[in-house]
Amino acid sequence: MADPFIMIAPSGARRSKADHLAIPISVTENIETAIACHAAGADALHLHVRDDEGLHSLDADRYLETLAELSRVLPDMPVQITTEAAGLFDVAAQLKCLTAVRPSWASISVREIDRSPELADAVYGVCADNGTKVQHILYGVDDIVLLAQRQAQGIIRPEQSDVIFVLGRYTHGQTSAPSDLSPFLDAMPARGNWMVCAFGAQEHPCLVEAAKLGGNLRVGFENSLTDSEGQAFEDNAASVSALHARLKGTP
Known about the structure:
About 40% of the residues lie in helices and about 15% in strands. The chain is of the alpha/beta class. The protein has one domain: Aldolase class I (TIM Barrel, Alpha-Beta Barrel). It has an 8-stranded parallel barrel, surrounded by 6 helices. A two-stranded antiparallel sheet has the order 3-4. The longest helix is centred in the N-terminal third of the chain and has 14 residues. The two termini are about 15 Å apart.
C-alpha cells in the first residue's frame, strides 16, 4: 500500500475546550498544533478559525493572519481553509470569505452552496479566477448526484474535481464504519483525487480501508477524539502518529 496523503483537521467548527483541552482555538494554538502534527507525519492542514468568543468564523482577517503565520513557520505544509456554514453563515458570507482571502485551497460543501443556486457560479468562478483549489465535501450519494449536475451545467469547473467523502456525519451519534465507504465509491466510479474523513471511534479503521483503496486521508479532532477502543488521544499529533502506526500494521 502506497503512503497516503494525510491531512490533519484539528478542531472543526463546533468542538471546544470542553470537549478536549487540546482543541486549538487561538492563532497560536493553531500554529503549535500544525507544527506538532506536521512533525508527526501530517502532510497538510485543514484550517478553521474562531472569533473572540471561540466560535466558528469565516472572518477574512483572521484567516489571513493565521495563513501568513503558517506560511512563515511551515512553508512546506499546504493549508486548506474551510467555508463550512455550521448553521451560522449563508452562501453570500462564504463567497465573501473566498473573495477576500483568495486561499490556495478551500473545502466547499456542494449542498451548502446549493442553498443559493444564484450564487453558485460566482462561488466556483472566484475560486477558478484566484487559483483556489476546490475540494468538494460530499456527505452522501445525493451530494454526488448534485456535484455531477453542477459539473454538467458548467457551474463547477472541469478542474474542480477533488472530493472528500464524509462518513458518519449524519448518522445517530455521528459514528461510522469502514463499510460506509462503499456507497460513495459505487456512486462515483470515475473519480480523480479523493479523500476520506470519518466520524466516531472507528475513524482510523475507516481511514485504513480508504488507504487500501487508493484514497487520501483526513484525520483529527474535528472527526474523532478517541481511538477505536474509546481511549482519548492526548492531542491531534498523537492521533496522526497512531494512524501512521496502523497504516504500517503496527499496534
